[in-house]
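Handout, page 2. Input:
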Amino acid sequence: MNTAAHWPAEHPAVPFGKVGVLLINLGTPDAPETSAVRRYLRQFLSDGRVIELNKILWWPILNGPILTFRSPKTAKNYAKVWGKDSPLRLGTKEIAEGLQPHFNDPSVELRWAMRYGSPSVESQLEELRDAGCERIVCFALYPQYSATTTASAYDAVFQYCLKARWQPALRTMTSYHDHPAYIDALKASIETAIEQAGWQPDTILASFHGLPQEYLEKGDPYHCQCQKTGRLLREALGYAPEQLQVTFQSRFGPKEWLKPYTDDVAKEAAETGKKRIMIISPAFVTDCLETLEELAMGTQEIFMEAGGQQFHYIPCLNDTPSAVALYADLIKKNMQGWFD
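Output:
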């Protein structure tokens, strides 16, 4: 057994014996400024998991028109929702802080990281190793699995290990798109929103981040898991299909993406007499640009201009007690045998 009691007297102190937990979220620029957004987008859109295009063809497009024209536009959108920091980074930090009491033990170290941006996955794995973590549970904070998100997050972990002289033992966590506690938490958030709004929506859109259609055809399970989340949530609420619809947002580029598109469905809803809608975004654990600007602002504008009358965006689960309790339970199950 590797214990300090068995070391020679002259052996230097080496931290060891701890279990680490690393939460990984997608990422965010360091500031709502064009230069910071350009750095972020370059890292994000250079990931071969995200853009499955030959780099010889993609790089001139990325480093030419994409970063030139998209960066200032995206920076302006970030400025609309930026507070003391990026909402996604703040939300991830708050989840980590909420989890800390669930692991109030000196033998457990908990950190959080961004797949793109800061703090980086590599820097937080280094901190865990320096703290004596010989075993680390990695939790990509995506309810539904996709190669573009979950797999990419773990790619960053494995890339660290390729360079690490002393590799930790690793466990990676999978999706929880159909976990009963996750569905219950979404259900409760919808019921609370309706009660607080004081009106019943004609329809609720469960808007998931989109993917190119070809990724589904290549075998990515994301679309199927989104549909299952939507179905289970609809059944939990006792709703008919038209009362809660699964839609997809945030498409990018000329290719066909997963349908139906959220903005199109919202516009059509208003035009066909559905004057009151709510939107929830179950694919995101924390509110971010795609929820606060794209949905709560952009989709609302589309809906109201098409004739809608009442619109309400339902926040992500964020660091609500039910969400944090779910994450703690998932992590502890993945720590079995490592930590009592």
